[in-house]
Design brief:
seven-stranded antiparallel β-sheet; alpha+beta
Amino acid sequence: MAADLFRRNPPTREINHFLRRNMHSYLSNTGNPATMHSISRFYNEVEAAIGVLEGKYLHQSRNSEVQQLVGTQSMVINALKKIHTKVCCRLRPTPNLASPWRGEFTMDIPQEVFNVIAQHIIQRNSYGHQYKETPAVIYIEITDLKKAVFIFDKMNLESNIIPKEELLKKDLSSRNEESQERCEIVVKKTKPMTFKFYKNSKVLSVHFNYGHWNAFGVPQH
């Protein structure tokens, strides 16, 4: 959080504002052109030095972020595969009477892995999701199917594990090329896919809606 704040709002802005205010104060108290020139040069050089330092530490911050992503890439891919597998296992043509056409499960996941998924995949753009965070919980709603597919397609970074067009679906056609029978998740604003990560226990709770289409492609849900 602090590193992200440093990148978005580096302290040099406040420092430079402070320096300019003080420079103008000094300049207003002298009428000597040589002194005024020296004061201006001094503050300009200080601002330039601060700019160099900002560039140095922003670069280090970005390098640290890259190292984090590289170091956790395989773990992130495995976590996405595990979540995807659990989702697809719950896509059944016969709904559960207690909660029809809904699926849910929990799983353990390291916080650093979930942080990468949340911050560098889900929040890579603002489209198709809602994000809330408290000291105890990170809560994310995925409100668009394209965003859900975008997230799980990241498990194909190293190799094509599951084709993009087959993500979050279960084919029930039994190799009948003419059959369109399938189950797949339904994601929209009124039926979001949710991720709830409990920081203390490192447990992720996933909830989603899905539907069933018969052999003729007619929805049965």
